[in-house]
């Protein structure tokens, strides 16, 4: 085939993908709007708009036209001639096309209805701590997911197919290894921390902090961390999130609690970390299906890097604590920066994942991972989950939920069928620590940059190494390219050991 | 053809129209977002999203599928069997289909590019008062519009075809009559007002009014006028507007000026009036192409009714002036409600349409109408516009622009090719006065309802008579059904005479 014909076909393929991205951008804006103040009486009609646009995106991703593009460009001769961006675009389309085509449409439609019903049922069941009200839904969801796995196919463990949706290339074998290594160190470290007589004083956090001032401080920190307000905005919402419409419009939301200054503070930095990733994707990728973070784990590594490695560091507060004291004049005047630092790094086993600290968070994730793995290998039945959950919480964290609402029913994920998602959070912590280790070598003045409030070089390093690539590189390629080795949990272990033996004087 | 087949075809036609409405809703949300705070670096990509979705809507409105629906349902036998909503839906689709099909696609595309360039050129020309920089664009736009009129066809005056786009059924013959009658009374009334020794004192308006308090007062007035905040929201913007996404989500924007309390106050009520119309369209019309105000003129009648007939009435301020004084405690304590009322009803010829009062506004519109009519009958060349503009301003208003920026270049409309739009504003004033005349008969306690702040019965009357019908009825049908006669300028004349002879003691 002549070069001219191939190029024309490539242009037309790219225009096709761009159109899908444009529809997705419209959908993302609608979701942002629905979560930040859309009037409630318009929601029903708006949901139908989302449904219509989503249907069109799905139709395009599985159309005969897409099939023809994928068939044509994945012929070896054609694929080899493509530039790297086009090649990766084709392979991503193929992955999605193949996945979607393997599920009969009516089966998928039924699954969408099921998860939508299950989400309502879950909300109700959580509220009432009524496991029995949710169990039948979850059983159907797990059974359907099992069917889907058979249709999609799998290598090794069935759960690998689910993991791959959120963290391409991730496997049970790898997770068992890295989570095992992490748990082996984290559990004893937690024991030593709990036994320490040196517990941080947190009493001063228990007071009212003016919301206007919290907002002003959040905005100031976002500017310092190089969040670009000409390419984003900060709004309020009940469940904070970041959403990337395009790299020039990456919005974050936060929640200001009058009696908890740390919620908005670290929540904003966390979402800001997600946003920095998306704001700094190469303009070469705009309008392609590569214009987003490469995986949930790498994404989470950035939110957690900024929230924890930077935002909960001693250096950061050496620089900004004076500003915080000035902002809340008269409220924390007598609290030293060291006491503040220790208070925001308080470690304590708890029941609720989303409120967990930097160390125990990983244990919450491992519990969910073990249970999900068991569900798909068949060693755990849905009916066994509450008991298995409580046993794991006792084993890993030494706590037992008083009811299922604060236990097995606490997270929304399973009601939406999002199995394989949870590990991303702990992977994010591991990636973050591993990146930090390299970053410290390549920017030897890392600590003093933070202490000076000069965060730009750190953002630039991450842009060069991670952000700009979007989905052009896989998570494995990124971690390998940047750090010279595959994912290694030792960096997180070392980071936690070093930080918390100091915080707790152990 | 069997009833079953016809019904199935009707369902499929309605689903097709609903899909177009859904795309339009997404587009409207994007525009709202771009005008209320979308980050500027994302605008370019977002504009492409709008372009893609708009292209799809246009494609659907002119597709062979649409053509087949229109052909099928406009066969006499079929059309007569349809229920009123379906019939009107078909006729609206046919009107748009026929209009669009008559313009060759490449010609229309070139026109879109031309108006987009012209809008930039206009902005620049207005800023520099540089008529010569804009004239060539306007000449091309007028010439293209002339061509389009030939393709679309026309009855009577060529300009009728343009008028019909904004005010279905409106003609030059009718406008000449109603504008003539209005001008004949308005110009002498203006003369008497200007000659009155009894000019309102406006000095107290020239002070700083806290923006937070302005906002609080605006929100309170919107609630009083029955704007439903569960079906809308108020935001800030540079050029205030109302946008209806669906009847459950009708948003308004306003602008707070620190040194001009009247801008946000009356601007908010004005946009609130537009919004009341859209919020109260019958739910039967949701998802159809009839779910919007029936014409620009009827729409404007509602914004102006609420802004002027209600919001600038003596009764309204008898009810709310105390609240205004309390809101701005210490700032207008010594100003009587009567002095306030007279100040906000100050009449003065001016150069700028959008700043004009209730009386002279109509004269600004008539000037534009005369010029547009001349452009399309061929009696005025584009090159003659500045001189013709200035002569008309001297004749109607007794003022002469010092430069074209404050004269012929002041409005954006012509740069977008929106000829025939301006008359809507003055039609709105006439319709509003005519509706008010009937309303006063049917709600004899109209004045005391306002004085009591009991605006609900007024909104309910308008909902029953006007709002609920959306585009199901034409402007002519509405004014005839509600008032028992066709558009009649005498009601506006009588309203202005009665109100302003009192305000100015003449």
Task: Describe the protein.
2 copies of one chain form a homodimer. Chain A has 506 residues and is an all-alpha fold. Among the domains of chain A are: 3-102; 203-350 and 442-469, no CATH class. Helices cover 64% and strands 3% of the residues of chain A. Chain A is built from 21 helices and 3 strands. In chain A, strands 1-3-2 form a 3-stranded mixed beta sheet. In chain A, strand 2 (242-246) and strand 3 form a beta hairpin. The longest helix of chain A has 34 residues, at 3-36. The first copy, chain A, is globular and about 75 Å long. The A-B interface holds A 19, 22-23, 25-26, 29-30, 33, 37-46, 48-49, 52-53, 228-233, 245-249, 251, 286-287 and B 19, 22-23, 25-26, 29-30, 33, 37-46, 48-49, 52-53, 228-233, 245-249, 251, 286-287.
Features:
homodimer; hydrolase (chains A, B); globular; 3 strands; 64% helix; Metal-dependent carboxypeptidase (chains A, B); three-stranded mixed sheet; 21 helices; 506 residues; mainly alpha; Peptidase_M32_Taq (chains A, B)
Strand share of the residues of chain A? under 5%
Morphology of chain A? globular
- Strand neighbour order, sheet with most strands of chain A: 1-3-2
Structural class by sheet pairing and helices of chain A: mainly alpha
Strand runs of chain A, count: 3
Major beta sheet of chain A, specifics? 3 strands, mixed
Distance between the termini of chain A: 70 Å
| Fraction in helix of chain A | 55-70%
What oligomeric state best describes the polypeptide chains here? Answer: homodimer
Largest two-chain interface: A-B, 36 and 36 residues
**Uncertain residue segments of chain A:** none
Function (chains A, B): Broad specificity carboxypetidase that releases amino acids sequentially from the C-terminus, including neutral, aromatic, polar and basic residues.
Binding site for Zn(2+) (chains A, B): 270, 274, 300
Protein name (chains A, B): Metal-dependent carboxypeptidase
Catalytic activity (chains A, B): Release of a C-terminal amino acid with broad specificity, except for -Pro
């Amino acid at each position: 085939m002549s070069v001219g014909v191939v190029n024309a076909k490539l242009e037309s393929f790219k225009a096709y993908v761009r159109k899908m991205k444009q529809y997705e951008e419209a959908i993302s804006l609608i979701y942002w709007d629905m979560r930040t103040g859309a009037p409630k009486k318009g929601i029903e009609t708006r949901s139908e708009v989302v449904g219509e646009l989503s249907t069109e995106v799905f139709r395009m991703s599985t159309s005969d036209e897409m099939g023809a593009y994928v068939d044509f460009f994945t012929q070896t001769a054609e694929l080899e001639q493509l530039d790297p961006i086009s090649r990766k675009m084709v392979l991503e389309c193929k992955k999605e096309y193949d996945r979607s085509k393997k599920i009969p449409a009516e089966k998928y439609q039924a699954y969408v209805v099921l998860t939508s019903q299950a989400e309502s049922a879950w909300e109700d069941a959580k509220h009432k701590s009524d496991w029995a009200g949710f169990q039948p839904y979850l059983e159907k969801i797990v059974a359907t997911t099992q069917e889907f796995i058979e249709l999609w196919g799998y290598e090794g463990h069935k759960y690998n197919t689910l993991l791959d949706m959120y963290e391409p290339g991730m496997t049970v074998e790898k997770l068992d290894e890295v989570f095992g290594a992490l748990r082996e160190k984290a559990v004893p470290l937690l024991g030593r921390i709990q036994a320490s007589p040196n517990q941080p004083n947190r009493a001063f956090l228990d007071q009212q902090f003016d919301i206007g001032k919290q907002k002003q401080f959040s905005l100031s920190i976002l500017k310092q961390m190089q969040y670009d307000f000409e390419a984003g905005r900060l709004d309020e919402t009940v469940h904070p999130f970041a959403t990337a419409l395009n790299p020039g419009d990456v919005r974050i939301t936060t929640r200001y609690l009058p009696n908890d200054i740390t919620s908005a503070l670290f929540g904003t930095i966390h979402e800001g970390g997600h946003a920095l990733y998306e704001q700094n994707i190469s303009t070469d990728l705009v309008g392609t299906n590569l214009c987003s973070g490469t995986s949930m784990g790498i994404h989470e590594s950035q939110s957690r890097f900024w929230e924890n490695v930077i935002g909960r560091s001693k250096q950061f507060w050496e620089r900004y604590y004076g500003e915080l004291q000035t902002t809340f004049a008269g409220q924390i005047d007598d609290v030293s920066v060291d006491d503040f630092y220790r208070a925001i790094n308080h470690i304590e086993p708890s029941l609720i994942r989303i409120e967990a600290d930097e160390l125990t968070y990983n244990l919450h994730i491992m519990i969910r991972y073990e249970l999900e793995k068991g569900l798909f290998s068949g060693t755990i039945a849905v009916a066994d989950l509450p008991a298995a959950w409580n046993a794991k919480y006792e084993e890993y964290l030494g706590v037992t939920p008083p009811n299922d609402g604060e236990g097995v029913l606490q997270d929304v994920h399973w009601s939406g069928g999002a199995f394989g998602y949870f590990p991303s959070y702990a992977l994010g912590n591991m990636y973050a620590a591993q990146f930090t280790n390299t970053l410290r070598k390549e920017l030897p003045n890392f600590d003093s940059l933070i202490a000076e409030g000069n965060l730009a070089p750190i953002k630039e390093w991450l842009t060069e190494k991670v952000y700009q690539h979007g989905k052009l590189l896989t998570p494995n390629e990124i971690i390998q390219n940047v750090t010279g080795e595959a994912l290694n949990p030792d960096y997180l272990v070392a980071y936690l050991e070093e930080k918390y033996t100091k915080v707790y004087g152990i």
